[in-house]
Structures are given as structure tokens and as C-alpha cells.
Amino acid sequence: MLPLMSSAADTLAAGSITLAETANSVNNAPDTGGLADFLRGFFGPLFLVIVSIVAVFFLFTREITRFAQFIILAIFIGIVFYVPGIIEVIAVALARAMGVTAE
């Protein structure tokens, strides 16, 4: 048997794992309350820089159609990125428009 498997089997056989220890490990979990805000603050400017570089490239190569398509797509992605609650609002509105009761 692999060492990891045998040690896990020995631990379970000895009965040293209790519910209290499991509950304590859940209570000691890292707090991720501000993780979404941190990631939004970190990747938001990076997203804007990439969008700006690609938009300038399309303008200098005079590909106006691709530029317009890219800007529209970037606006939609930016809305979803900066206002993530909009997805739920749109889904509820579509469900109500189709006659489905949404809670």
C-alpha cells in the first residue's frame, strides 16, 4: 500500500478523527469575504489596459468593423466584470418576461 493510504487507514482505524476536530478546521478556514473585491481591483486595470492596447491596434490598422465589434464585446465583458449582480437581474427579468415565477 502507498504510505499515504496506509497512514490514512491507520488514522481512521485508530478513531482519532472526531467531529469536533473537523468543525475546528472549518472555523479556521481563511476569510474570503474581500477576495472578489481584491480580484476585481487587481484584474480590472489589467483588463482596461489590454482593451486599450487592442483598440488602439485596430484603430491604427484601420479595421473599423473589428474595432466596433471589439468595443461592444469589451463593454459587455466589462459590465459583467464590474457589476456581477447584473447577471442575476437579467436572468430574473427574462424569467418573468416568459411567465415563470422567479423568487
Automatic annotation (TrEMBL):
Keywords: Membrane, Transmembrane, Transmembrane helix. The keyword Transmembrane helix applies. The chain crosses the membrane at residues 38-60, 67-95. This is TrbC/VIRB2 family protein. It comes from Nocardiopsis algeriensis.
